[in-house]
Amino acid sequence: MSGSGLVGAVAPVSRRVRAYFAPVDRTAGVPVVFDAAQMGAFGLESPPAPWVDLGWCGGFARKSLTKVGVLRTGIPAIAQRQVRTEVEATVALEFESWGKLQMALAAGSQQMNLLRTVNGATANGSGGMAGAAVALMAGSTASSLNVGAAAGGFGVGDLVAVDVDYAGQVGFVGSGVSGAYVSSAAAVGGDVNYVRRISLNVGRVVSIADGVLTLGVALLAGAPAAGMQVSQLVGFVDREGGGFFHEWSGLFVMDGEQGDRVIYHYPRLQAMQGSAEIVEALAGPLERVKLAGAFRALPVKDTNDGETVLCFRSYLPGAMRTV
Amino acid sequence: MRNARDTFYVTLRDRLAAVNPARTMVLRGVTRPGVLVEENELASAYQPVDAFCLRWTGVQVDAQGAMPLMTMTCEIRYATDGNAGNGGMDRGRLLAAMDAELVAAVGAAPQSAVKVNYAVSPAVAMGTMVFWGDVTPGSSTVNEERLERVATVEVFCYQEAGEL
User: Fold this and answer.
1) Tag placement on chain A: N or C end, fewer CB within 10 Å?
2) Dihedral, CA of residue A146, residue A147, residue A149 and residue A154, to nearest 10
3) Nearest to B127 by CA among B110, B111, B112, B115
4) In sequence order, what are the residues at sequence separation of 6 or more whose Cβ sits closer than 8 angstroms to the Cβ of residue B159?
């Protein structure tokens, strides 16, 4: 430490990148904007609302594909000015854990819940006809679902999707996060469970008492709205192909070992590849399979100056470091 | 470096004591957490059992930045004869317990601590952080009835201006 009390600034040393997600309002086309000036110092375990923790990720790689052209004049031609001819950016990462949200974002396309089927349902790649959903009763919250006497049909450990019935909606569907785009009721066969099939509003039952299912983690969409019902599911499925692109607001945080922090904020990200995995050899025949995602950044306007930009990189220096 | 070593030791000692308060040792008549720094004690060929013994080995310096980045290798030696009441037949379990305690203590977040100068009283917090990687356990070795292991941790710090 010098006589001024300042410590020399050094290059950030970081271990891993923590990723966070926030839903983009697809209907209105409005992303979630992260203001590092107001919220940049948040604790990694407690991101500010509505950001949702995606956990640690590895292989984080940002790439600027922006092209800078040169305006030359004269003979011989001399570079006089520069201009950005294309603005593009991508980001790739590997999720350290598999979960609904991670799978949905990395899938590259629509990601669905494998709803528990009715007996004798015709086989279908993304799940056959689902069983009847269970209505929610008054008093349900984001982490407790009051299903009354129907609780006997559930068990601790069950996975559930909580969302509205499909009743002919056209456009983006899914509570909390738009999970699909429906072009017509005919396209989804009028399936009353379709919204629960694509919903990201899922949870796991950790206890059952007095007709109430308690979930391990609060639902993404918060307290269930009127008309929402509960469907049991056994897992998740995504497909190569399809016309839907998930879009999300992304936040990536690298904490430096000297109290500094680098924050990468992409207000709008869409997958730029199909579902993919990275395989890491452990030992012998064992391999660890990580979800791999690659995303293309889409533009937003910075209201400070009206510039069209793809991402924001913020740096919060450590205490008493030279700047 | 001395401050960084002291800081890492004190942090690890406190964390190990929190993970397993029952792991204690008696050293020079004082009961204390079961962890010591070899170079801070009287020279002895005696290897304490059921305790962690820190030995500082390699040092590297990267002088490219605004402050020299020091990388120090800390060997953590531990051994057990097992419990006499069990005829030593639980020595594998006890070594595994020490493995788990060490992994928990070294790997607990944050894997860093404010560097502290313990050579003055009261101790003074310094301007930079000491930080370290994950623990790398070596193979266990059998020395007669004793099971031993040496784990290593890379510890990093910046050499502050005027710091010795």
Assistant:
1) C
2) -110
3) B115
4) B1, B61, B67, B68, B69, B70
The verdict on residue B153 lying in a domain is yes
- Does B41 fall in a domain? yes
Q: What is the C-alpha to C-alpha distance for residues B164 and B162, in angstroms, rounded to an integer? A: 6
Quick: pLDDT tens for A114-139.
999 999 999 999 999 999 999 999 99
Profile chain A (323 residues) by mean pLDDT over runs of 10 residues: 76 93 94 97 95 93 96 95 95 94 90 96 96 96 97 97 97 95 95 97 97 97 96 96 92 95 97 93 91 96 96 94 88
Q: Which residues of A touch B126 (CB under 8 A)?
A: 1
| Structure tokens belonging to residue A17 | 């990148």
User: What is the complex's ipTM, to 2 decimals?
Assistant: 0.82
* Residue A253 tokens, joined: 């945080």
CA dist., res. A280 & res. A1, Å (int): 43
A8–chain B Cβ distance below 8 A for any pair: yes
Q: What are the sequence ranges of the domains in chain A?
A: 14-108+245-316, 112-238
| Mean pLDDT taken over chain B | 94
In chain B, the number of structural domains is: 1
A177 three-class SS: coil
**Chain B closest CA to A228's CA: distance in Å?**
40
The pLDDT, as a whole number, for residue B64 is: 85
Residues in chain A within 8 Å Cβ distance of B11: none
Which of A7, A11, A322 is the closest to B160 by Cβ?
Answer: A7
- Give me the CATH number covering residue B72: 3.30.2000.20
Closest CA to A110 of A247, A251, A290: A247
On the CB side of A315, CA atoms within 13 Å amount to: 11
Q: What's the token pair of residue A270? A: 């869409």
Is residue B164 situated within a structural domain? no
Q: How many CA atoms lie within 13 A of A13 on its CB side?
A: 20
Domain encompassing residue B6: 2-158
A14 touches chain B (CB under 8 A): no
